[in-house]
């Protein structure tokens, strides 16, 4: 099941500005049949569209235009700013991993990014916690079971 998400606030931290994230969606997946009950695995969704055009300023007529500038391939690594965004999204959504989709007019690349509590602790400065619902605090996600994000 895919859920639409909005902005999710994280609890206040001393000396830090307010933090939060807005994943593009949240995928809920059950290890067993959902009718048997049990908690779903939460997977954040993040979509990035690589705009294959470059803006060219209009020197003669003053109007800007765009020219085709295709990307030769997807980068081998995710841009650091996107990694930070994905990690905060997983923390806020209590997700164990994130499906990071990069789209161009030529193809779509999908990466599975695991939740990284060590990175979050270094970035935020303390053990991360997330907000489970309006005003309710919960610990960050844990991985377990047969699921792996490799």
Automatic annotation (TrEMBL):
Transmembrane segments: none annotated. Residues 130-150 are annotated as: Disordered. It comes from the Eukaryota. One of its GO terms (biological process) is DNA repair. This is YqaJ viral recombinase domain-containing protein.
């Amino acid at each position: 099941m895919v859920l639409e998400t909005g902005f999710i606030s994280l609890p206040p931290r001393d000396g830090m500005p307010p933090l939060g994230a807005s994943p593009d969606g949240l995928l809920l997946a059950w290890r067993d049949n959902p009718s048997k009950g049990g908690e779903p695995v939460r997977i954040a969704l993040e979509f990035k569209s690589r705009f294959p055009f470059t803006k060219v300023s209009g020197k003669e007529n003053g109007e800007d235009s765009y020219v085709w500038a295709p990307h030769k391939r997807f980068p081998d690594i995710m841009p650091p700013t996107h990694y930070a965004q994905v990690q905060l999204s997983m923390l806020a959504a209590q997700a164990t991993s994130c499906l990071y989709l990069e789209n161009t007019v030529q193809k779509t690349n999908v990466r599975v990014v695991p939740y990284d509590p060590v990175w979050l602790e270094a970035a935020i400065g303390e053990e991360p916690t997330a907000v489970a619902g309006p005003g309710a605090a919960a610990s960050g996600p844990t991985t377990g079971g047969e699921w792996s994000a490799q």
